Give the backbone structure.
Amino acid sequence: MAHSNEKIVYDVRDLNLWYGQDQALKNINIQIGKNEVTAIIGPSGCGKSTFIKTLNRMIENIPSVRTTGEILYHGTNIFDKTMRIEELRTRVGMVFQKPNPFPKSIYENVLYGPKIHGIKDKHILQEALETSLKSAALWDEVKDRLHDNAYSLSGGQQQRLCIARALAVQPDVILMDEPTSALDPIATAKIEELIDSLKADYTINIVTHSMQQAGRISDKTAFFLMGELVEFGATEGIFSNPRDKRTEDYITGRFG
Amino acid sequence: MTINYKNIERRVRINGIAKVIFSMSTIFALVVLGMLLYRIIAGSIGWLDFKFLTGKLSIFPEKAGIFGAIVGSLGLMLIVIPVTLVLGVSTAIYLEEYSKKGKLQNFIKINIANLASVPSVIFGLLGLSFFSRIMQFGSSMVAGGLTLSLLVLPIVVVSSQEALKAVPGFLREASFAMGASKWTTIWKVVIPVAIPGILTGAILSISRAIGETAPLVVLGIPALIMKVPTSLMDNFTALPIQIYYWTLDTVLTPEYANLAAATIIVLLVVLFLMNSVAILIRNKSQKGF
Amino acid sequence: MERETNVRSQIRTNIGKRKNHVDKIMPRFFFVMASVSVVTTLGIVLTLVTDAAKFFSEVSIFEFFGTKLSPLSANPSFGILPLITGTVLSSLIAMLVAIPVGLTAAMYMSEFASSRARTVLKPIMEVLAGIPTIVYGFFAYSVVTPLLINIIPTLGAKNVLSPGIVMGIMIIPMVASLSEDAMNAVPNAMREGAYGLGSTKLEVTLKVVLPAAISGIMASFVLAISRAIGETMIVAIASGSSKNFSLDITQSMQTMTGYIVEFTSGDAGSGTTGYYSLYAVGLLLFAFTFVMNILAHQISKKFREVY
């Protein structure tokens, strides 16, 4: 497995994707940088969720999906036979739109990943538990009730739990698919703060339908429209000086 | 055109009468149930006592006890429970988690639906040919238990399927996203959530199996067995068989009707207890997602 | 930081080591388990056909559909028409009870009853459905028959009327719940159109809901018939074992199911023609219920209105 220290984590080349006969992604070429927060914006149905799910190959759970092109993760094509899907997903974690903790205790949720991948040492597990919950800014709130059911937490806490759960296997990329759209403003703010603190150690891709959110937290922004990557660049530039008219139309609210 | 208001009154009256008639139908069910229970309880007074439950079978009604039959029925369930759970849940997992939509999946589903409506005597004939004779299990609890397992298999399959379907997709997604394999996801996430539904199905199937008589009669399970069975390969008798033969011979020995009634009460109490457990499980697991 | 990277590298090593044996075996195991149901059906068909064939090698089809049935006499004959009439008549009586009562109960619960009434009545239906048939058999013989004898003094102690009625009662919950499901599936929008024009509840039920749900309702009738045909214990106990070919429902008759059970509860000498006659009757029974099943399936498919 090629381990490169380059600044590029993902190099997507000529990615096309079809759901059966419908083409959902058209010739996507993009490079995701290390330790950056990349926001993916666009109107509903533009393919942003589809795109982010190709990065950890979750999209393939849908049977009619077909792809062409390459996605290089640290130099290796993730579609290669040499790359085990399970391993890819331990290096690239995912947080979903609606918080989806397991109906188990907080403890079991966070340690689900390490345990199923064979980690048995109690010290290591305990350390992973604490570290992940602290990184997710949840430790103080739950340290006294680790064995409570995850459903007893509020929506915002559940989402941070899901983040902790993703962090426990020590990925280097975190994919987030509209992680705050089901949360109230206060919970949203907490998560945005969290993303900001996480980017020091992780590379974060976040799909968001809120341009304001993209503007607040991301370093780079990618604008998708009808399956195409219309524009990609530094967030500042995209929002103040978009090069493509379609980007400008979207940002100024003419559609979407 | 003027609307005939007298007509409306008549129609409304007919509606009211119909409502009463329809409700009578459902009350009819209540009445029947009441009659049934009354007769059974009345018939068993004085006959259902500790001696009856722990005594051995005898042709003399005053001496007869159903301990042997209770042991026999229990022995049957000892076989039915593991066999139906393993076969039924596995089939459900195959259909819901692994198989792809297509002819094969359809074929298996149709088969299950078909088996569900095959008369129980036919299962008896199958058991007689295959388990009794070919496998040489004779008239043992193994033969009876396996035959009954096949009979109630569709119940477990269908309810396990429902239980698995009810597990939300986003839980599976979360597990896959962490690099878990399909089997790990099923074992660690899906099944734990589906357990209440699976258990309910298991209880339903046992409730059905414990009262089934026809297959056992076809297998040649007798009514009068002196020895209480000690191993699953022994010959045995069971509660429904006792009820059957005692009822048949009531014309010869009227007291047999009382014995039958007492045994029915035992059977119904067991069923009531099992169904209460099932309802408890269902209520306790109502935590929504 | 050292402990932390432990997790990452340990996971990496573990995944590298893992051979995925279990992941590959489990689906195959489940498939084998799932095919047991198919094997069971095959087994049923196989055993019925092979042993029925042995029967038909000794007895002609002509005789089989004749009217003289005396399997255990010195000169045995195997005309099963008496069994067929027994089955048909008892099932008919059952349907005359189950269909009207079941359908009206379903209409009541689906369209008329308050939700309070429903919460009381539905469990009662479920209880009725869960009573073992042997208990119904006892009920038919010890309660219903004596009751009926009061009304019809010439009624035999074993007759077809009593088990027919009780079978009907047993089947009521099945008709009621399947029909109710069919009626519940009718969208409210349809009802509201009729109510808006001033229809009474009865009219809406009969003219809008029933026609829309007719496929599910008819399918439930067919399934009910199938159930009655296959029922054993109630008729075995209460309708006796007379093998005379007659149509008198006040006297004893035997059904196909009763025949099978009576023969095997004695000492069924295996290998005799009598023994094989069971499988011939069983084959006929299986064919009946199989056809009914397919019919029910087709009916609910064919007439299902796409809303």
Observations:
- The first helix of chain C runs from residue 2 to 17.
